[in-house]
Amino acid sequence: MYNALENTYRAIVSYGVLALEFVGVAIILYSAIRSICMLFTKNPHSRLALAEGIALALEFKLGGEVLRTTIVHEIYEVLLVGAIILLRCALTLLIHWEINVEEKKIRALSELKEK
Hints:
Elements: H1 2-40, H2 46-68, H3 75-114
């Protein structure tokens, strides 16, 4: 009985991780295609759109890693997942910083155009 519950739990978590990773990849692809189209139309917000898409995708991928921590058994697996989580958090922080910088540039440009 216990083994059946554990196997069911592992399967649910594994599919959940797979689903979150898939959504993250889909968001990155969508954002990249959208940003490329924005580049062709000379839209100045293309960098911002790509950065926001990557940030959102990283959140989904980070969720998958957190979920993965519930099924690890050995210490090296915990350390590996922990390192991946730290790396993705650092990337997320850098991307959010870049988004803020880009938004400030856009605001400054729009204020200059209004004057």
